[in-house]
Design brief:
This protein is mainly α and about 160 residues long. It has one domain. The protein is about 50% helix and about 5% strand. It is built from 8 helices and 2 strands, in the order ββαααααααα. The protein has helices spanning about 20-30, 35-40, 50-55, 65-75, 80-95, 110-115, 130-145, 150-160; strands spanning about 1-5, 10. A two-stranded antiparallel ribbon has the order 1-2. A hairpin with a 2-residue loop joins strand 1 and strand 2. The longest helix has 18 residues, at about 130-145. It is globular, with a radius of gyration of 15 Å.
């Protein structure tokens, strides 16, 4: 199946094994460190939510723990688009590597895409077409593997 995405098409790749997704994520979303606090957050230092979770965010690190991910994901509205560019692939990797309680985070991927628009949560226009296509297919993997609904997020991806 093929869906329009701007000037290029998003292709559905069919069933892909988890291990293949791990390789694809490494290629399309190279591992990078978490940005610094001022880049990671979309709110000022005086924001109460930022103050509560800031010490849990792994600034300058590549890996993320369950506790850090839980704190950040629960308060995603204070994360900037630049922070989300690091966070979304970090969540996907966490799920793909089946780290502790990874199933809790599966429904967040479509949620962030559904809520994503400029200056809030996740702005899809910051992704390359290859990254969008990978996320589109990863959503399908999550639907097949975890039984979640992803059609709204996929539809949104084909419109951006």
């Amino acid at each position: 199946m093929i869906f329009n995405e701007g000037e290029r098409l998003l292709r559905y790749w069919g069933y892909i094994e988890r291990e293949e997704y791990i390789i694809l994520f490494e290629k399309e979303f190279p591992v990078c460190v978490c940005p610094g606090a001022d880049e990671f957050f979309s709110v000022s230092e005086q924001d109460i939510i930022r103050q509560i979770i800031e010490d849990k965010v792994p600034f300058g690190d590549i890996e993320i723990t369950y506790d850090a991910l839980y704190a950040i994901c629960d308060e995603h509205e204070v994360v900037s688009s630049k922070g989300m560019i690091w966070l979304l692939p970090a969540i996907c990797r966490y799920i793909l590597h089946r780290k502790p309680h990874h199933g809790y985070f599966v429904e967040l991927i479509p949620l962030y895409i559904e809520l994503g628009y400029s200056d809030y949560c996740f702005n899809l226009s910051l992704l390359t077409t290859n990254q969008k296509e990978l996320l589109y297919n990863f959503l399908e993997y999550c639907a097949e593997t975890y039984g979640i609904k992803v059609s709204i997020a996929q539809d949104k991806m084909t419109m951006m």
